[in-house]
Write a structure and sequence with these properties.
By secondary structure, the chain is an all-alpha fold. The chain has ten helices and no strands.
Amino acid sequence: MKTLQERIHHIQNLLHFDDAQMAEKLGLEEEAYQRIIGAPSSEFLEQLCTTFGVSRTYLEEGSGHLFTERPLPIANILAFRDARNWKQFHTPKDLAISLCLESSELLECFQWSGEDVHVGEKQKQMEEELADILIYSVLFADSIGVDIPTIIEKKLRKNAEKYDVKKAYGSAKKYTEL
C-alpha cells in the first residue's frame, strides 16, 4: 500500500465495512469520516488503532503487521450455535470430522491449479473455507473445554524449544532433522 489513505481503505476492505459502517464504529458521521481520511490527524490514526487493533507502524509507514491484535469472535460463534440448539450435535468426534472435511474443501482450491501458490481467482472460496475451519476450531475447543489463546501460547513455547531460531531459520526441515 502506497499512501496512508490506501492503507486505511485496505483495512476497511479487510473488515468488510463501507464508509457508513466505519464512521459508525468510530463515532463519526459518514461525511466527516470521508473528509478526515483525506488528511487524517494523529488523533484519528490513534482512534483507528484503538478501535480496530491496527498497528500504528503499518498505518504510518506501510510496514510490519497490519493488526496488533484481533480477537476471534468466539462469543459470536458460540451464540450462533446456541441460538440454533446445535451444541447437542457438537461432540469432539463430529467436530474433528468436520474440521477435516472443511480442510479438504480448502485443499480443493488448489486441486488442478497447476501451481501451488497461484490461485488468486479462488480467494473468496479460500476465505470461506478458512472461516469454516476456524469456526469449527472454536467449536471443537469449546467441546473439549480449552481456552484457545492458552493452548496456542503453550504450543508456541513448545515449538520455540523444538525450532531454535539459529538452527531453523530459513529451513523447512522438521525439528528432528535440524
